[in-house]
Design a protein that fits this description.
Pfam families: Bac_export_3. The protein is mainly α and 88 residues long. The chain has 2 helices and no strands. It has one domain. The longest helix has 40 residues.
Length: 88
């Protein structure tokens, strides 16, 4: 395997990682920001208040985006399997 092929596999892996994990991270960021804004406006400084809405939102997003994430990971595995089988 040449260095160019290794870089292609690594680049493809990073892109797939961002496609699979990105939506969940964005949901967690938005929910955390919204809860922090509510905390600042109401002056409620409970540190554990952020976790429950964030967990519920991330699990909901996971259920919504799981087919997309599975397709992205399966496609990447298929491309890797082809490279292994062809010896590239």
């Amino acid at each position: 395997m040449t260095s160019g092929a290794v870089i292609d596999v690594a680049r493809d892996g990073i892109i797939v990682f961002l496609k699979a994990g990105g939506p969940l991270m964005i949901v967690a960021l938005v929910v955390g920001l919204a809860v922090s804004l509510v905390q600042a406006l109401t002056q409620i400084q409970e540190q554990t208040l952020v976790y429950v809405p964030k967990i519920i939102a991330v699990f909901g997003a996971l259920m919504l985006f799981l087919p997309f994430m599975g397709d992205a990971l399966a496609g990447y595995m298929g491309r890797i399997a082809v490279r292994i089988a062809t010896g590239e």
